[in-house]
Write a sequence for this structure.
């Protein structure tokens, strides 16, 4: 879907990157971290690029995009962040027009990254078994759809990812990519593999090595070829107080092991 008349969302950005989303509209709103105010009155006479003071805070008004929407998202389940989402998107070839299945949707962390690159021609099917998680994910995605200039055709299914085959075929035919982030991803690989087109890719997000190994075996059992397995390690650097730059004190935290597999044609019988 293309946003014909998008609501005017703006982000007020602190210099350290923290940002607050608000819609230029009349009526009092409460923005966590900024307080209560009428956004239209507050922003009267101000445009994107201006600096504004709200309470004690000095902020820059910017047009919001994915990072600002993510800073403001509601969270319930653990989310997949930029480090892993970016890698999965690039490695799996997900982009404008892609047909993608993802689940568990949780709070929509991965789905927000996916929607950001899929354009209006893409189809994203998200599946979440817990309604209280789906509700949070839906709110985050609905807000993002108002912020982005283009948003894919998005379906949020409340149910089990192992039983969405008919719906996937109905909404988009074969899949270009599927990303599974549930406690036992290996259990649903046999249900999802048939939905992939030849060359399509299936990824699993696995917090532990046992999960990685089980997914690896389940993928190969279905004839998928494992293209990449491992973890992405991120190490941030900071400016040292006496000059120079050096690795910061933030620990290198483990997020998950990723497994990316591809569907190939089966070997011809002699
Ligand atoms: C770690 S969270 C997903 C986080 C999400 N990928 C993100 O980036 O924000 C795992 C989610 O999977 C859901 N879930 C577990 N088993 C499922 C299944 N069989 N089908 C669909 N969702 C499932 C859980 O309810 C939970 O919300």
């Amino acid at each position: 879907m293309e946003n014909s008349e998008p609501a005017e969302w703006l982000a007020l950005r602190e210099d350290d990157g923290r940002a607050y989303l608000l819609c230029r509209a009349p009526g009092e709103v409460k923005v966590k971290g900024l307080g209560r105010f009428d956004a239209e009155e507050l922003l009267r006479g101000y445009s994107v690029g201006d600096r504004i003071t709200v309470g004690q805070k000095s902020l820059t008004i910017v047009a919001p995009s994915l990072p600002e929407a993510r800073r403001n998202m509601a969270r319930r389940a653990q989310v997949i962040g930029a480090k892993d989402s970016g890698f999965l998107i690039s490695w799996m070839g997900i982009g404008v027009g892609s047909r993608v299945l993802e689940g568990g949707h949780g709070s929509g962390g991965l789905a927000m990254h996916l929607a950001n690159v899929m354009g209006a021609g893409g189809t994203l099917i998200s599946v979440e078994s817990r309604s209280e998680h789906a509700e949070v994910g839906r709110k985050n995605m609905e807000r993002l759809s108002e912020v982005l200039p283009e948003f894919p055709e998005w379906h949020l299914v409340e149910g089990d990812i192992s039983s969405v085959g008919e719906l996937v075929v109905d909404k988009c035919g074969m899949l270009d990519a599927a990303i599974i982030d549930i406690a036992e991803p290996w259990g649903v690989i046999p249900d999802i593999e048939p939905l992939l087109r030849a060359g399509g890719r299936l990824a699993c997000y696995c917090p532990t090595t046992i999960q990685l190994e089980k997914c690896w075996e389940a993928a190969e059992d279905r004839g998928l070829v494992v293209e990449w397995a491992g973890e992405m390690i991120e190490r941030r650097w900071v400016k040292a107080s006496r000059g120079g730059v050096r690795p910061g004190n933030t620990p290198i935290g483990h997020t998950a092991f990723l497994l990316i597999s591809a569907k190939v044609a089966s070997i011809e019988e002699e």
